[in-house]
Amino acid sequence: MKVIRAKTAGFCFGVKRAVDTVYEQVKTCGGPIYTYGPIIHNEEVVKDLEAKGVRVLRTEEELDAVEEGTVIIRSHGVEKRICDKLEGKGIRVVDATCPFVKKIHNIVRRESALGSYILIIGNPDHPEVRGIRGWAGENSAVISSAEDIDKVDFGKNRKICVVSQTTFNYNKFKDLVEIIKKKSYDISVLNTICSATRERQTEAQSIAETVDAMIVIGDKHSSNTQKLFEICRKACNNTYYIQTLGDLELNQLGSVETVGITAGASTPNNIIEEVQNNVRIIF
Questions:
Q1: What is the pTM of this model?
Q2: Catalytic residue among 128, 209, 273, 274
Q3: What span, in angstroms and rounded, lies between the C-alpha atoms of 143 and 147?
Q4: What is the pLDDT of residues 25-50, one digit of tens each?
Q5: Residue 128 annotated as catalytic
């Protein structure tokens, strides 16, 4: 039995930075600590932080009710409107937005000010995308499929600036960009998919193509893990999406000879190791 673990599996730079930021605040900060939304998309990490006294503010109404303490902005970032609200409240704010996401905020704010229409490729319901659009102004749209492109007004003299959710499927991004480029002559495309995401997706596909079964570990709400699962499933029919070891029915793997393991950017290393070690023991 051979188990192949992806080298890129687990916390990316932005996630590690955000999680470390919260734990550091727990150690050094007096008073209540809040995160506006889950700091990352991983229930196990969020539960551990809650056990240490960190409260998750899941709605804007809950944020409005905060009068003291520290509010930490989640790794996915937030809309400019929320940043302005936090500044107006006069409470302590710690920004744990991933630097790569923050870069996109700056891009869309600048390009929008210059008169460009901002086209964001990504999941419109994802907090990162909502945050990006919140810095892009009214002249913006979010697309996730070819059908969405047909709903966009590509005016003859309209400048279009295209950016992407950092965790979007790179191959799908390229396909959508090709369609967009046929719609107008004045289009600027900025590939803002995180390099770690591209590397993770490429390695996952490569492993999935060579193994009998593939295990993808990550939170059910994790966009980048969902993309990994989609990519691996296309390359390997026996692909399983789990959140923890408890979700894996080892008898499903049958008599396979090789198993690949990858994990989303919000998956802690201890969970990956637990799955890897147990798969080895069983076989």
A1: 0.91
A2: 128
A3: 8
A4: 999 998 899 999 999 999 999 999 99
A5: yes
